[in-house]
Amino acid sequence: MTPSSDDAILVQDLVKRFGEFEAVKGITFSVRRGEIFGLLGSNGSGKSTTIRMLCGIIAPTSGRARVAGYDIESQSEEVKHSIGYMSQKFSLYEDLTPFENIRFFLGLYNVDRSRWKERMEWVLETARITEVKDRLTRDLPQGWRQRLALGCALLHRPEILFLDEPTSGVDPVTRRHFWGFIRELSEQGITVFVTTHYMDEAENCDRIVMIDLGTIVAQGSPAQIIREVCPGSEGADLNEAFITLMARSAP
Amino acid sequence: MSPRNVGAVMRKEFNHIVRDPRSLILAFIIPLSLILLFGYALSLDVENVRTVIVDHDRTRESRDLVRHLASSPYFRVQGHLESTAEVSVVLDSGTAAVGVIIPPGYGRDITADRSSPIQVLVDASDPNFSNITLGYLTAFINTYNQRLLLKFLDKNGMPAIEPPVDGRIRVWFNEDLQSRKFIIPGIIAVIIMIAGAMLTSLVIAREYEAGTMETIRSLPLTAVEFLLGKAVPYFFIAMTNVLIAVLLGQVLFDVVMKAEFSLMMAASSLYICVALALGLLISTVTRSQLLANQGAILLTYLPSLLLSDFVFPVTNLPRVLQLISSIVPATYYIEILNGIYLKDVGFALLWKDFAVMVLMLAVLSGLSLFILRREGL
Amino acid sequence: MSWVRIRELVRKEFIILFRDERNRRVLVMAPIIMILVFGYVVNYDVKDIRVAVVDQSRTRESRDLIDAFDGNRTFRVVEQSADQDDMERSLLEGRVDMVLRIPPDMASRIRKGKAAPVQILVDGSVSNMASMRIAHTATVLNDYNQTMIRRRAGRTMEYGHVDARVRTWYNPTMDSKNFFVPAIVAFVIMLISLLLTSIAVIREREQGTLEQLIVSPLRPVEMILGKTIPYIVISLVQMTLVTILAKYWFSIPIAGSLFLMFTATCLFLLSTLGVGLFISTVSSTQQQAMMTTFFFILPFFMLSGFIFPIDNMPVVVQWLTYLNPLRFFLMILRGIFLKGIGFNILWPQYLALVVLGTALFAGAVARFRKRLD
Predict the structure, then answer these.
(1) What is the CATH number of the domain that holds C101?
(2) Looking at residue A2, what is its pLDDT?
(3) Domains contained in chain C, number
(4) B-chain residues within 8 Å CB-CB of C331?
(5) Distance between A96 CA and the closest CA of chain C, angstroms
(6) Is the pLDDT of residue B321 over 90?
(7) Rg (chain A; Cα; Å)
(8) What value does the mean pLDDT take over residues B301-328?
(9) Does the beta-carbon distance from C166 to B65 stay under 8 Å?
């Protein structure tokens, strides 16, 4: 695989071992600029470990990866300036109000002081939480908190947005709205890297990598994967393809 | 009450303990290090008071005084200095605690049968130290003056005078006046509070924080069974600690029980139960681990150390604190411990303390049960 | 290093700390309660020695001796009986601190010019207090003897004797609180800075917010400053509060320089915050952090000279105390409060705090990695 300037993320032979257990067994893939990329797999397949390595939360055991053109190990500071991250567990301060949370992250990302007001309003409006900005975050409904978290991850206009299981525990209406928003971001040129185990959602992705037990089992666009895995069956969807793949890899 | 239900809660609690080995190890290491510290290192007794001398007189008489001071077991003469200013420097920096300054003309005064003033400077910052040191000093000067008087009488051909009253002071209960003889038994009370109340104060709060209290409420489990199951594992931890403490005290530090071992076990079991009941009550009321821990330190550890007549005499306390001291469980346990370790008294003298602890146990566990029942358990 | 980031971290830390009313109360009340309790409880003053008397002599001489005790401010005769067993039982039950037994032949022996043995039983359970009581008893007996000798001789015996003029320096009234209250200043600071720092980091880990910080461009040094500055501020405020209480409530004179005290506190905080950070790196739950904190505080407290004098410890343990920052901080505080000494004498202690503080803090920072694994 040759690096090209079109690649937002480049992953090569990435391995992560926790003691005896090998969670990620040498995976290689790339993500192009501006696309919505889905990393799919069941629970414990290694997708969270992968996204956490790419964001610099944990160090890889071996292998290399470049995010936004920077090496994740030697240039981790540059990487962090170019990415936004939203974890599957709500990870903003519940004892702060949305307003205080946003202000904190504006400071954390060193956003220029002259743009604070504009970014603050942008987040409050996009997340539709303007009227509750002075209530404690703890008291907000799950869906609202999720929107706030997403807003905070976009405060500093990152090139790449990492979303780790962003829609778990969210109702279908909010979920649809959410994917509409992701599409908008992608049109603005932001690369979106999302992990999920909801196959119906994954259809929204431009490209997909499916992993199981730490290895890649399929990659390509959703349509491509369905065609390859379930040839001949009309109306097959990703779900079916996924189950077929799982059955194949099972010993 | 079903023993099987109690057993189930107990097993669950036991698993919790075993899965957090650090807390378990600390629950043993903290008591152990306390015993070792107090046995080997910490003492309130004063000996070898570091003393410096300024002898401006340099006569036979002044040298005689210094020689007697140096041969006393309580003072250790560290050296001779030239001036009072030098004494003030060593006292300031803490390298010596007492300075004796003999003025010029001391020897002349003594031989001329006059009283002769010497100056003694004492670093009195630490009241325990300085009180005892002053006692030693007074005793030393009295004895020395007695010698001088006899010499005087002898010189003038008068018959020796015996002091009218000869105080034969005998010390009971702690004959050698070693502080570890009372601190080690006392520390057992503190250890039980750490191992018992501080650990258990977290166990019910943990269920509330993790949300598992809901599940427990839905089970066919009574409040009594729940509390008992929570308490039993910690009872054994605390009891093991007591046995280790007793054994170490006896083997390493020669702190030996004078009364029956069985009485000690009975008192300890009762006190552990009181401690556990207190811990569980704190846990039930606070429902937060951080608050429970702070509460446990404030309500169990500090009072048993400070308000229990352990190191600091209750009679010295202001009235309000004396009243508080009478509702601190450790006060009664420490009284029993002193009775068992130092005085060799039996149940006949100690039953009142036992009775108070039984009453405390009843009140504390009653309150926990009441709160839990109201919660629907 | 970005000051904006640090400022925002500090602001966030303060908001979270003070939003909870219970926290506010603990932060203000804990030091006040501690200083009040310690100020009143930790007390070695010898007063009110309870005496039981068995007077088998019943003469003027024996009554004079009893009066000598009862008239003394420190002693109080609470029980009198002819039966020695009764009195010994009182001692056993702890109703009295000592028993004075005057034998039947006391007066006759004194009149013959012979020494009359008087038996004194002292409850030695609490050995240091017993030592003090014995010393007071000896003084009363000596005074009595002087009076008796004078009375028999009909005049003052003029002989060459030592007249010791004792001056108690630094704490002339030998008041316990003068010694202990300054130490509580140190203890409060240690407890708060150690526990709160470690909890503050662990709470982020437990709530998952630490992950969000790790993916941000926040540098470890900014994180550490952001986590420690709030507790430095709180500790200094508490120190001021406790010092004011010490001076105006307990009327403890501060003989030395407040500036030196302040500098020493900052140096001491370097050590405690270092240990706090260290605890946060080795604990994953609040319970573990609290137990570990307790484990550190215990030896710091016991081996500092707070209550138990370092001079009394075995040499090996005395060496160990040189690793204890609280030991040096206490020497500085007591030196400043009581002795009014300055940097020219205290510089070795300051140096020790600098060395220990730098080592502990640097060690903790090195461990405090930004990554989670």
Answers:
(1) 3.40.1710.10
(2) 41
(3) 2
(4) 94
(5) 7
(6) no
(7) 18
(8) 81
(9) no
Contact B188, B242 (CB under 8 A): yes
d(CA C36, CA C316): 35
Q: Please give the pLDDT value at position A249.
A: 67
Whether C59 and C119 map to the same domain: the answer is yes
Question: What pLDDT is stored for residue B278 in this prediction?
Answer: 92
Q: Across the interface, do A58 and C372 touch by the CB < 8 Å criterion?
A: yes
Q: Are B72 and B46 in contact (CB under 8 A)?
A: no
Q: Class of the B49-155 domain?
A: alpha beta
- Min CA distance, B377 vs chain C (Å)? 26
Q: What is the β-pairing status of strands A83-86 and B49-55?
A: unpaired
Q: Where are the alpha helices (DSSP H) in chain B?
A: 3-19, 21-36, 60-71, 84-93, 106-111, 127-155, 180-192, 199-200, 203-210, 213-218, 223-253, 261-286, 289-296, 302-306, 319-325, 329-338, 347-374
**Residue A115: other Cβ atoms inside 10 A:** 14
Nearest CA of chain A to the CA of C27: how many Å? Answer: 18
Q: What is the mean pLDDT of residues C219-229?
A: 88
Q: Is the pTM of this model over 0.90?
A: no
Q: Does A96 touch chain C (CB under 8 A)?
A: yes
On chain C, the residues whose CB falls within 8 A of the CB of A92 are 209, 212
Rounded to the nearest 10°, the torsion over CA C83, C84, C86, C87 is 130
The contacts of residue A171 (CB under 8 Å, 6+ apart) are A143
Tell me the C-alpha distance between B88 and B97, whole Å. Answer: 10
In a domain, C165, yes or no: no
Q: Are residues C214 and C350 in the same domain?
A: yes
Q: Element (H or E) spanning C308, and its range?
A: none
Q: Do B165 and C110 touch (CB under 8 A)?
A: yes
* Contact between A199 and A242 (Cβ < 8 Å): yes
d(CA B35, CA C298): 12
- Determine whether domain A7-93+159-249 maps to CATH 3.40.50.300: yes
Q: Average the pLDDT over each of A133-137, A179-183, B48-52, B255-259 and give the range with the smallest value.
A: B255-259
Out of A96, A105, A106, closest to residue C15 by CB? A96
Helix extents (H) in C113-175 = 127-153
**pLDDT averaged over every residue in chain B:** 85
- Segment B267-280, tens digit of pLDDT: 999 999 999 999 99
The pair of three-digit structure tokens given for residue B197, joined into one six-digit string: 């109340």
The terminus-to-terminus CA distance of chain C in angstroms comes to: 24
pLDDT confidence band for C154 (50 / 70 / 90): low
Nearest CA to CA, how far is C283 from chain B (Å)? 9
Closest CA to C354 of C344, C364, C362, C365: C362
Test A87 with C208 for CB contact under 8 angstroms: yes
C63: tokens are 């009554």
Strands B116-123 and C162-169: parallel
pLDDT at residue C370 greater than cutoff 80 = no
Residues of chain B with CATH 3.40.1710.10: 49-155
Torsions phi, psi for A195 (to 5 deg): -105, 145
Q: A250 pLDDT exceeds 70?
A: no
C209, A57 in Cβ contact below 8 A?
Answer: no
pLDDT digits (tens, 9 = 90+) for A179-229: 888 999 999 899 999 998 888 888 889 999 999 888 898 888 888 888 888
Q: Could you tell me the pLDDT band of residue C214, with boundaries at 50, 70 and 90?
A: confident
Which candidate from C40, C307, C334 shows the least CB-CB separation from B318?
Answer: C40
Say if C161 falls within a structural domain. Answer: no
CA–CA dist C169, B130 (Å, integer): 10
pLDDT tens profile B345-357: 888 888 889 999 9
Q: Answer whether A87 touches C (CB < 8 Å).
A: yes
Alpha carbons C365 and C271: distance in angstroms, whole number: 12
Q: Is residue C363 part of a domain?
A: yes
Q: Are residues C207 and A55, on separate chains, in Cβ contact within 8 Å?
A: no
Distance CA B347, CA B342 (A): 14
